């Protein structure tokens, strides 16, 4: 019979639906027809597959070749099905045996030479294949991400010829290698470089414990960007499942995954000229944006008010929900976006408002307009805001003091404090629900009265109320994880709401 079926996977958001490639050889005018791919993709795939088969020293069947990619309604862009199509054609023509095709899936684009080229979205595809108990063959260029999925039955290959040799039982295919479990923290910048800024350091540590959003305000050159860049170095490493989620986004974005650093939390710092689509994702074949690439990690928006208002407003929804849905005429794609926002800004357009050593040239009106670029609802979602004032020159030139702790020391405290939250709720404090809040952020009667009075005076919203409690919870966790919040925890949390 001259019908053969091979399996592959498409890419839809971070999902990887199965695609079945059916190949039928029949009499009639020789030619190749591919059904189920967009017009341009068909032409390209047909030519690549034909030349690659010939260059792999096989014979391209001189018959009518019909290739059907099912189901029909899935997105099927790019060359990711080349390998599955080529193997289907060779199997239908009887040039390779079919035994190993049944329980194996194939991903890979073919070069004209017959070599395999890297494709995007290997990681989510592999997770699905593992769940189905299937083996997968992927290009060697994707070995890095393939190595991340523990217990997956995955093989890597360099070329079509190699895969055919393996199907015939004439040769073995390589394993993808091993991934490192602990990230190499030494590779990043260290908090030991920062002098002074005790308040900001403290806020950064609390933010790290609970995954809270942080805003730093201060004149130019006081260390705001420096501090933000050092946040990933004090965050606990990703758990395996978190790391796989984060790498899945990188993978569908077509970005390389480094198996040595895959457990490190991502840090994304888009420039303030970034468009809304670059930030949240978009495109006719929806691609993840910066907020999704920062999933389970840090999104740093430097020069916060310089982002266009419209760009900042699109952040509001994912900040609350932890994911983003991109709707296109044909389909919807959902990408995860559970990120921790860190923003930095100057207090006014010239940068020096409130700086004792440097006069500010801005009018009150200018300052007001500058700050009004950040909407109330957006600022309401920021749990901690902190001033980062000028550091005295004497402090900068002095040798490192005991207060200038390094990242490893701070990280040890963060990991310990976060452990309390993980034991209680299974999640960092910023993500606990209102119901869990009532359980985990209990107040004594005196504290409750005091807290309500303070909220009243500050005129805080209901959202702010819950957010302050979560921050107080993180502070208490740093303080040994006491079950009841006391007044010092609440007072410190409120203090970060002053702006
Ligand atoms: N607290 C500090 N300790 C040590 N070095 C510092 C500190 N603050 C600033 N510096 C030095 O100044 C440089 C600029 O710091 P950074 O980029 O963090 O400033 P910034 O607050 O982000 O300024 P801007 O508002 O202009 O963006 C640093 O690379 C570092 O050399
Ligand atoms: Mg800066």
Characterization of this structure:
The mean pLDDT is 90. The chain has 499 residues and is α/β, with parallel strands linked by helices. Helix 1 packs across helix 2 (82-92), helix 6 (198-210) packs parallel to helix 16 and helix 18 runs parallel beside helix 20. The longest helix is centred in the last third of the chain and has 18 residues, at 407-424. The chain folds into three domains: 3-167, Ribosomal Protein S5, domain 2 (2-Layer Sandwich), CATH 3.30.230.10; 185-407, P-loop containing nucleotide triphosphate hydrolases (Rossmann fold), CATH 3.40.50.300; 432-499, no CATH class. The chain is 37% helix and 16% strand. The N and C termini lie far apart (75 Å). The protein has helices spanning 39-55, 82-92, 122-131, 143-146, 160-167, 198-210, 224-229, 240-252, 276-280, 290-293, 309-313, 316-321, 364-372, 376-380, 393-397, 407-424, 434-440, 445-458, 462-478, 487-495; strands spanning 3-9, 18-26, 31-35, 64-70, 104-106, 109-110, 116-117, 135-139, 154-157, 214-217, 267-268, 281-282, 287-288, 298-301, 323-327, 332-336, 340-345, 384-387. It is built from 20 helices and 18 strands. It is elongated, with a radius of gyration of 27 Å. The strands form six sheets. Strands 11-14-17-10-18 form a five-stranded parallel β-sheet. A four-stranded mixed β-sheet has the order 1-2-4-3. The protein has a three-stranded parallel β-sheet with strand order 5-8-9. Bound molecules: adenosine-5'-triphosphate and magnesium ion. Magnesium ion binds next to helix 7.
């Amino acid at each position: 019979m001259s019908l053969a079926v091979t399996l592959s996977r498409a890419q839809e958001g971070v999902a990887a639906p199965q695609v079945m490639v059916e190949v039928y050889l029949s009499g009639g005018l020789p030619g190749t027809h591919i059904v189920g791919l967009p017009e341009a993709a068909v032409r390209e795939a047909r030519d690549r597959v034909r030349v690659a088969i010939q260059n792999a020293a096989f014979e391209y069947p001189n018959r009518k070749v019909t290739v059907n990619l099912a189901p029909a309604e899935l997105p099927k862009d790019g060359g990711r099905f080349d390998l599955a199509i080529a193997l289907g054609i060779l199997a239908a023509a009887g040039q390779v045996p079919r035994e190993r095709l049944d329980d194996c899936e194939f991903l890979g684009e073919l070069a004209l030479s017959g070599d395999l080229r890297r494709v995007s979205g290997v990681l989510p595809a592999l997770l699905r294949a593992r769940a189905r108990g299937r083996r997968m063959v992927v290009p060697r260029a994707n070995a890095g991400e393939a190595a991340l999925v523990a217990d997956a039955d995955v093989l890597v290959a360099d070329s079509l010829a190699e895969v055919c040799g393996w199907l015939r039982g004439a040769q073995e295919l390589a394993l993808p290698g091993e991934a490192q479990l602990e990230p190499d923290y030494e590779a990043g910048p260290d908090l030991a470089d920062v002098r002074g800024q005790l308040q900001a350091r403290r806020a950064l540590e609390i933010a790290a414990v609970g995954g809270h959003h942080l805003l730093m305000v201060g004149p130019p050159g006081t260390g705001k960007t420096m501090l933000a860049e050092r946040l990933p170095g004090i965050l606990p490493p990703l758990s395996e499942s978190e790391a796989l989620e984060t790498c899945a986004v990188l993978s569908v974005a077509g970005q390389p995954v480094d198996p040595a650093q895959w457990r490190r939390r991502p840090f994304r710092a888009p420039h303030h000229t970034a468009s809304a689509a670059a930030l949240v994702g978009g495109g006719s074949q929806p691609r993840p944006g910066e907020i999704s690439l920062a999933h389970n990690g840090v999104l740093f928006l430097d020069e916060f008010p310089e982002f266009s208002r419209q760009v900042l407003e699109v952040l509001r929804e994912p900040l609350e929900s932890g994911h983003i849905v991109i709707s296109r005429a044909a389909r919807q794609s959902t990408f995860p976006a559970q990120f921790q926002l860190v923003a930095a800004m100057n207090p006014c357009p010239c940068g020096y408002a409130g700086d004792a050593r440097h006069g500010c040239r801005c009018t009150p009106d200018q300052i007001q307009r500058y700050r009004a670029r950040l909407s109330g609802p957006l600022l309401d979602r920021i749990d901690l805001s902190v001033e980062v004032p000028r550091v005295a020159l004497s402090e900068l030139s002095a040798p490192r003091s005991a207060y200038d702790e390094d990242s490893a020391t701070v990280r040890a405290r963060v990991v310990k404090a976060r452990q309390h939250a993980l034991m209680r709720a299974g999640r960092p404090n910023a993500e606990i629900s209102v119901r869990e809040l009532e359980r985990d952020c209990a107040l004594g009667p005196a504290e409750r009265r005091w807290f309500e009075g303070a909220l009243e005076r500050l005129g805080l919203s209901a959202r702010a109320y819950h957010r302050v409690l979560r921050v107080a919870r993180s502070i208490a966790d740093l303080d040994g994880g006491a079950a009841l919040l006391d007044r010092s925890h609440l007072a410190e949390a409120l203090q970060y709401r002053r702006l």
